[in-house]
Amino acid sequence: MNEIRLDRSQVRSAAAIQQVIDGLGLHGGRVVLPAMELELDRGIELRSNVTLVGQGRDTVLRKAKGRVYPLSGYHNYGMCDVPLMHTQGLVPGMTVAIRDDQHGGFFETLARITWVENTWVGIDRGVHSDYTIAQNPVLVTAFPLIFGLGVSDVAVQGVTLDGNREAQPAGIGACRGAALYFIGSRSTTVTDVTEMGFAGEGLGFQMSRDVRIQDCSFANNTGNGYHPGAGSTGVVFENCVAEGNGAAGFFFCVRANHVSVRTCRFANNAGVGVSVGTRDSHNLLEACSIQGNGGAGILFRGTQRPVEPQSCWIRECRIEGNAHAGGLGQIVVLGDAHDLAFERNVISGLADRDLPGFYVAPSSQRLWLASNDIRACSPAIIADPAALVSENPVGGCGAEAVEVAHYRHLAPA
Questions:
Q1: What percent of the chain lies above the pLDDT cut of 90?
Q2: Which of 120, 205, 295, 303 has the CA that lies 20 to 30 A from 231?
């Protein structure tokens, strides 16, 4: 593999790093960053077959102060330019988001500026929505610090990401960005990344497959810590931490499936520890610590058929002292969730609140509870006895059970 080791004189800007990455060409290579602190005025975009390596805590990439640029009027879907009230400080190559008060999710636009002319800027992709003046549309200098769009065989190792949260007047939405973000990608590896303080989520990926996240920490972000989303399949998280985030520690989004989460810690997040919802299935949580979160330790969201979560196995986890800010119990199963297994977990409640270890909604079915140690929870279990089964209903879960047919909902390579 081609390797380029950079010194400080070669990495005085994000644009300089981007130039090196782009110069590797189709075969890619390994770009090694030095010990440094660098302020980013744009995100660093990975290309296929590229590995970006830092020196751990000694390589710090910090987001620059954010700015907000109101649009000057209505603008329509698909246009590769944006009309603004002013463009002071914007230059080609910068990454930005276009958003408004109404549209969220995938209707938000992440793009790179291609030209600036008077009060217009060009962008490298069409805007994802109509933006009307009544909804206060803006262009914001919000972006992932490192990201990949439709890439394969990429890796990020040994970097520290600082979102500089206090200096951001606006963030980027979860579906279009995170401090570290991938969409439509495959064979992605992230190891030894420490991240904190992003105006948005810590790590997110959408419509991706074969992802491995190891030995990472994502903390003190305004959104979720980790967000595997939009049908992502065949994913492993190991030895990771999400702490002090403004939403969930770990958020399974729509149709995240065949995901293994092992020996991870989700602690002191404002929302729930782990959230499971729409079409999430065949996922495994094993030997994790879920402690001190404001909401339930584990929540199966109130999703109805035919998009209910199912076939998930939680085993040998410690779920302790959660729901201090609200919630129905340490483990809460709502909606039409079914075929769930909870085995050999330690579940502890709060000294100052009477909450159950398990709260199971009447509409949920086929839960297997085996050899769980439930302490300081009153009562231990709230559930219709008919919803509890004597044999494990879950088989073939986690990344280790993924098969070729499980990727059919994703775009082909």
A1: 95
A2: 295
Task: Residue 348: give its domain's CATH number.
Answer: 2.160.20.10
> What would the mean pLDDT of 149-165 be, rounded to a whole number?
98
Question: pTM score, two decimals?
Answer: 0.96
Q: Specify if 406 maps to a domain.
A: no
Q: In sequence order, what are the residues at sequence separation of 6 or more whose Cβ sits closer than 8 angstroms to the Cβ of residue 386? A: none
Joined together, the tokens standing for residue 28 give 């890619």
Structure tokens at 88: 């002071």
Q: Which domain holds residue 135?
A: 68-140
Phi/psi at 387 (nearest 5 deg)? -80, -10
Give the DSSP letter of residue 399: G
State whether residue 157 is helix, strand or coil. Answer: strand
Report whether pLDDT(262) > 80: yes
Residue 51 lies in a domain: yes
Report DSSP state, residue 303. P
Place of tokens 């302490």: 375
**What are 4-37's pLDDT values in tens digits?**
999 999 999 999 999 999 999 989 999 999 999 9
